[in-house]
Amino acid sequence: MTTQQVTVSKTKSFMTVSMIELWERFGYYGMQALIVYFMIQRLGFEDSRANLVWGACAALIYVSPAIGGWIGDKVLGTKRTMIIGTFILSLGYALMTLPSENTWVLFFALGVVVVGNGMFKPNAGNLVRKIYEGDDSKIDSAFTIYYMAVNVGSTISMLLTPWVKDYVNEQYQNEFGWHAAFAVCCVGLLVGLANFFVMRHALEKYGSEPDKKPVDGRKLTLVLIGSVIAVGISALILQYQELARIFVYVAGIVVLAIFTHLIRSSEQHERAGLIAALVLIIQTVFFFIFYQQMSTSLALFALRNVDLNFTVFGSHLLTWSPAQFQALNPIWIMLLSPVLAFLYSKAGAKNKDLSIAAKFALGFAVVAIGFFVYGFAGNFAINGKTSAWIMIIGYGAYSLGELLVSGLGLAMIARYAPERMGGFMMGAYFVASGISQYLGGVVANFASIPKGMTNPLETLTVYTSLFNKLGIAAVVCTFIALAVLPLMRRLDKQHQGIQ
Q1: What per-residue confidence (pLDDT) applies to 233?
Q2: Is 16 inside a domain boundary?
């Protein structure tokens, strides 16, 4: 094949994975936009419980890929495991359409989502890695565009599901709108599956060793039985907060211990890359604490202290529901992703690209700006309600930081992890992210509003105080990231010297 034909073939393969990722994220973020509101407004949870339940669920969702990556690498195959995960996810969203106020129904449905995500997420990312293996500048660019595909799906669903919920509730004067919105998430997954089966031939050359062999029925049965057990365990963890806390901390200790063992027992030429990956993963933990605020403290801030009307010079443009403000994050990322991908490719061609470690430091700095904007919002508030435009500005800075840190997290694994550890390393990255998602829920509870407090003037100071503290914390993370840059440069040179 000519170079041009190879490029076209890889692009088609990349688009196949990106499209199913887009629809999977459509389902996930459509659910995320509503889940904390659903627990507080529909099920009557207090802020503190809703934040911790969602924090624990997000942790499980991010921890589960550690197992799913191994299943894809060693047991069923990368592509097969990804498709099974998509089926399971669609089932989880289908269960959330059941109009029940029993918390166990919700927790079992979320448990199914946890298992499905664990099967899907690491294997989709690993396929992208395999398509562009060996080309660092292309990997950075590909994962940035891949991240944009994620946000196309999430933007549409975060705008759509709150509208569906409000429309159905108003039209029929009942609470079924919540469940109709979750049904939209399920339909999105089914569309993604249909699209994948149409385009699946583009991925024939890519996958792990088990993908090249017929399906082993015994292994498939064991995986499905294990999945059912995992759903039950996840539901228990969500119901009992102490279990959630123990699980998350134990997961962190286990992954750190395994990582330490891998570094000590790895080949000499692999060690520098593994140490570099560990340093960046630890930084990622801190970033995702900030990230988790979007669906917890920031979401509740939008509910209680943001004017939902967009106006220009006194003229009304449109009105959003509180949940739709979360869509500002993917909208900004879609606008910024092509710009960053272009800059990465152009800088890479001139050998002037910033290292991933430097991009992480810059990312923390702009996240700090975003939280200071939210903290400053109180100065523009009228009767405890701040302008919707403040949210746009804050999310802009926040989203640029996300692209520089989280958007390159997968690329970091692809660059530094030895191929034989690809699935586990992808899983380890998600475990670290999961731990910080739970910690993010804990942090959000510093702005937990008691049920009796309804005055916006009172709630405003609670939220802005937290956001200012988070801004200071992000500044500290920036300086730490800058301090380890010399170490990262040395490790990067040692790693590249073997390539």
Answers
A1: 94
A2: yes
- Domain assignment present for residue 177? The answer is yes
Contacts of 51 (CB under 8 A, 6+ apart): 36, 296, 297, 441, 442, 444, 445, 448
Task: Please give the Cα distance from 69 to 73 (Å, whole number).
Answer: 6
Residue 390 lies in a domain: yes
Cα angle at 21 between 198 and 13, to 5 degrees?
Answer: 55
Q: Which residues contact 279 (CB under 8 A, 6 or more apart)?
A: 357, 484, 487, 488, 491
CA distances from 311 to 227, 388, 389 (A): 49, 9, 9
Which tokens sit at 441?
């829920």
H helical segments located in 406-484:
409-416, 422-444, 456-483
Report the predicted TM-score, pTM, of the whole model to 2 decimal places: 0.86
Measured distance CA(78)–CA(38) in Å, rounded: 34
Could you list the residue range(s) of the whole structural domain that residue 76 is in?
11-200+209-496
171, part of any domain: yes
Element holding 315 (H helix, E strand): strand 315-319
CA angle 253, 258, 259 (to 5 degrees): 95
Dig out the tokens for 335 from the structure.
């606008």
- For the chain (499 residues), the mean pLDDT of every run of 10, in chain order, is 60 80 90 94 92 92 82 85 92 91 92 93 78 66 71 89 93 86 93 84 75 85 93 93 87 79 72 75 84 91 90 80 92 84 76 76 91 89 90 90 73 67 68 86 90 86 93 92 79 62
Question: How many domains does the structure of the chain reveal?
Answer: 1
Q: What is the CATH number of the domain that holds 331?
A: 1.20.1250.20
